[in-house]
């Protein structure tokens, strides 16, 4: 009987930061990579080495050692060193799907510039797998994946190889590294090691793999040096009378040798926590960082890039180098562990500061582009810009500076939210007699909400007139619009859906419970406390906008909530503010309603993922050897939908990533407050601490003892129309901007006070512009400049169950190379189109 082949893959798994900082990591990287490169150059008998599938580490290294680039290229071209395809390996359930695509776009291109990108979708350690990763990999030309976490043992016990399928039907060959990425880290020919470690693992892998297929033994670990003795050890193992033949190789050669024929399909997201921990409640850890990241992503993809395309179309410059620099820094935040928040306080501080620096660059460039556009239209213009190629109508926020106490936009319905007088300050003039200080006259800052309609991607221009406009007037105990009425009645908060008069009494409340967990996992202790004593603070109303402010007591905490209704919108916008001074606890908001389906639907990528509210393994998870309790806590990218007996309820969030649905309520986790990086034997996670299990790392900053604010929207609809849910998500995104060209205030925007040149071609621009209008049933993931030419990349998707007709445009793959595809967009599918605006 022939021996089973075992592909031993030497590798390093490189955490860019964790309980250590990036500076620590980069110093060690310099030493390790220099040693690795020299060793591979001098020892051709060591055939190949995988450096973790993320190009960023090589990018960092060559920034300090550019003289080593030629050696790196030679080793990569010869197949001796494997890098890419990621820029950084991201925790894919915590960011926008567009970030996953851009991460691979920059990483694969960078690796190819050094000779080649590893043709494996490598996912050794991330906490759960995004449902669309197979399709994303395939459309980058990557036809195989290797992953560790997220599978049930029953799915793979007969074969660790399978076809992984995305919701749109795309499939790629995949292998599960059942024992993780380090089972061969201490590979040895020692008899005790063979008997107690290596052979039992190989025998188990052999049981789970058809006889005709090879076995995979990853041989590496976190930040490890190359094991220079591996060629000798492999030779010694092959001289022993074992049932296995060992081959020192790489992942690409293993997957080619496996040549899986598609006998088994595993579909969708992989978020099981049986063999490997998924840490399903890590999505509410350090939510301050997660919300900041969501804000930065939205500003890049939904604001800066489409705004820059409008500028490019009008003759200005698209700041591609700056955008890609921001993206690289952003992907340093998305790397596994970093965005999860399971880091030391020092590292989380660095992550937060990185995001703030990115945001400053984005805000600055948005300021520049808005100013250049508006200067090209008129000297006194006020412009509203629509950054999504859809016909839309809603409320836009304008900041207007004027000497006049009363001012209005011509031709639209509007309401004055706030008006304040600002001193003009002083101006220093240089004269022949020396410097003189001159008092400048003051002016007013007016905050206006106006109803604005757009035909598509483009802008509208408004004129100002000196007249009064309606203000938000104090009301009684009720606010309403066409869709809802919300009132406080005898201390009860009542929501009424106006078209059928169905009502919910005290339709949401807050829950607080002690958290005895760590940075990875929530661990309940004791009984929860629920909010009481809803008190009305005020109501303010107008014909296009009304809002209610209430206070709620939750134990020792006071939560202030502002509820806003807008004309034409069936979204109820909610904002919560509190000053958290409590340690070791978790706060959720619960929306009450009867759900007898046992299901919820979370938005992920380009469709909704169907989830069971109660995992069937919950009754015997310990007996089945689950690494963690399979609670019904799920991720969401932008929104979650729950079918209730009286209509669907949807929640649309900005960076809140964790929900639970039950028969009686939909709970959205606002935050966790916990001060340890790791802790043993949690109620829902038995055994060792995750991460570092031999040192207690205290993280007092993770207690989030500070002022916290949360914003999201609630929708209660009779229909279950998927397109309506996604239209609401588009509406909730911040994809409109406004700007006033003025000289009174130079500090409202980031770089107003600096002199800026005007692009030569950007003069005499039209007062209105529409560049592109898409049908309502096609949704936009991205609108950007192509990497290699002046064309525009429009990424669209269809979340529905039926196909839709695409515009007659050239299609490209995710690496922006032309492909031949059908003219229709299939159910739950996406497409990248190359267009000229």
TrEMBL record:
Q: Does the keyword Hydrolase apply?
A: yes
Among Pfam families, the record links this protein to:
Glyco_hydro_38C, Glyco_hydro_38N
Q: Name one GO molecular function term.
A: alpha-mannosidase activity
Which superkingdom? Bacteria
UniProt-listed GO biological process terms: mannose metabolic process; oligosaccharide catabolic process
The cross-references to Gene3D superfamilies, in alphabetical order and at most eight, read: Glycoside hydrolase 38, N terminal domain (3.20.110.10), Glycoside hydrolase family 38, central domain (1.20.1270.50), Golgi alpha-mannosidase II, domain 4 (2.70.98.30)
**Taking every annotated instance into account, which residue ranges of this chain make up the domain Glycoside hydrolase family 38 N-terminal?**
5-257
Glycosyl hydrolase family 38 C-terminal domain location: 479-674
Q: Which UniProt keywords apply?
A: Glycosidase, Hydrolase, Metal-binding
Q: Does the keyword Metal-binding apply?
A: yes
Family assignment? Belongs to the glycosyl hydrolase 38 family.
Give the protein's recorded name.
Alpha-mannosidase
- Could you tell me which species this protein originates from? Weissella muntiaci
Q: What is the lineage of its organism?
A: Bacteria, Bacillati, Bacillota, Bacilli, Lactobacillales
